[in-house]
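task queued by scheduler; priority normal; single chain, no ligands, no partner chains; default sampling; output format set to structure tokens
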Amino acid sequence: MESLNTQNKHIGWWEKSISEPVTGKNAVLQAISNIKDPVYIISKNGNLSVVQDGIASIGSKETKEIEGFPLLAYAPPLLPEDLGDPVFKKRYNLRFAYIVGAMANGITSTEMVEAAGRAGMLGFFGSGGLTLPEIEKAIHDLKRRLDTFPFGLNLIHSHNSPEFELETVRLYLKHQVNLISASAYLELTLPLVYFRIKHL
């Protein structure tokens, strides 16, 4: 990397820990791709360098106060479990604020929903396009596999068969399915409102 004048540009100072700062474009790319560790961009002998450990002091300390290098930029660790709404994660006891599914015709299978739940995500079984016995079997399987993990099922709008949509809702209510992924709705339908009201 090219040398640069860091006078009046630094945001603080970096003190050495274990690793040595590394220069070069590849070093920066490698550091920012490692999201589990912080990234410190420093000026070492006038060269832009990167390191992922050490101690950063943000502020206007004099150089004589610490033995280190000017800190130009800092990025904290960015873990996937730190993203998303913490209220959403707490409500459903999730590690990640991610939803999996629900692709119809069982494409999002019970196995995928189980894998999502055990990984700390919320999975929705793709029940759209399946028969009521197939959906009921999936509910039994998921309740057996995920007795302590949250999961949901798809509720797809059946504009040609409102009776089937209502029977699907009744099946969900019968088995105490509390979470649905409503899809293909252009407006509210009576079965969808019925499901929501029953959970008030």
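post-processing summary
- Helices lie at 25-33, 86-91, 110-118, 132-145, 162-174, 190-198.
- The mean pLDDT is 88.
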